[in-house]
Amino acid sequence: MKILVTGAAGFIGFFVSKSLLANGHEVIGLDNINDYYDVNLKYARLEELGIIRSEAEQFNNVVPSEGQSAFSFVRLALEDRENLPELFKNQSFDAVCNLAAQAGVRYSLENPEAYVDSNVVGFLNILECCRNYNIKHLVYASSSSVYGLNEKIPFETTDAVDHPVSLYAATKKSNELMAHAYAHLYGFKTTGLRFFTVYGPWGRPDMAMFLFTDAIINDKPIKVFNNGNLERDFTYIDDITEGVVRILETPLADETSKKQLFKIYNIGNSKSVKLMDFITAIEESLVTVAKKEMLPMQPGDVEKTWANVDDLIADYEYRPNTPIKLGVQRFIDWYKVYYNK
């Protein structure tokens, strides 16, 4: 297939692009390469996909990769209502995987406009392009953050998600509602994926895995929120990628029911890990005890996440399963090489 992957210079988009290419698909990656975190890491990911930085820095030009890779890249923002439809018109995609978004729960408290621009306006533009250019399947990133203040554990996709505690979570819930409306009105399939605390090599510098490792290696204290009384369903990047690619590659059924055109899945490790145990795994890998700064709960945070993935198992015969110690070690191995530590 010819697949558009948005957010291709991002953490998950990079790995999904690599996996799709390995499976023989043609991929066009899109990213606006904003400066929410170090752009050098984004360009380094693109270089792994064969894109020269000087070419990737240009706007609106579809740049082919060096060598034999079937990957091309375009620097473009989802909210660009003029150039995004032109891309769809010129490329004739078979499917779209929308992983681009303004990420980060805490940053949404500081810069809410960025979230509305990218996650709401940008997502609307993706939906409009899908309906206008005959896209059969849109797979898009949602988030475990939509569960908000829900207390029933583990989280199931049939749970009501009406109590978000951050604007980021609210924009992701809005994406699901918008996708439902478009699937119902225009008859193309939309699949939303609620990712649970993704970590691994090439990960984002604002995430706990990166922050803790970087601080410990550089002999700085780590910030432990809610005095360590947090639990997360940490999910390794390869497990996330496998789930996304399986859903993209599975042929669409001849679906007569409009209910089947709209699907939501959790992709998580089906296990809630205590934050202090996660920190211990990092300490053991680095053979260093972290200096810990115990802090209160942060606005926008939730105490516990835990994914029920029964729907994913039933429909795709897939369950993420990478053990936390293995995933942590793989990240640290990558970090030491990338930063020459």
Automatic annotation (TrEMBL):
Q: Which Pfam families match?
A: Epimerase
Q: Which Gene3D superfamilies match?
A: NAD(P)-binding Rossmann-like Domain (3.40.50.720), UDP-galactose 4-epimerase, domain 1 (3.90.25.10)
The record's listing under InterPro entries reads: Epimerase_deHydtase, NAD(P)-bd_dom_sf
Query: Which UniProt key words apply to this protein?
Result: NAD
* Residue ranges of every copy of the NAD-dependent epimerase/dehydratase domain listed in the record: 3-268
The keyword Metal-binding belongs to this UniProt entry's keyword annotation: no
Protein's recorded name = UDP-glucuronate 4-epimerase
